[in-house]
Amino acid sequence: MAYTPELSLKSSQTLRRIAWALDKPMTKSLEDVLQSVTMFIDRKKICSKCKDNSICQECIFNDKNHKVCGKLIQ
After folding, report:
1. In 3D, which of 67, 73, 4 has the Cα closest to residue 38?
2. Which tens digit of pLDDT belongs to each residue from 48-67?
3. How far is Cα 58 from Cα 55, in angstroms, rounded to an integer?
4. Cβ neighbours of residue 28 under 8 Å, at least 6 residues apart?
């Protein structure tokens, strides 16, 4: 892992509740949340501001990898 940010108490509490709902550890739940965020964020804006073009083909914001719909909690 390249970078481990600290979460605020509120964000940690929120993530914990999401993890309980998913029946997964918080680390896996955070990955699910980040994968799902592509449904809500304009990927073109992300790409235009990106400062690292070394993983464009694998990036979740790439056209071919972009998720248009889906559910985090099923």
Report:
1. 67
2. 999 999 999 999 888 887 66
3. 5
4. 19, 22
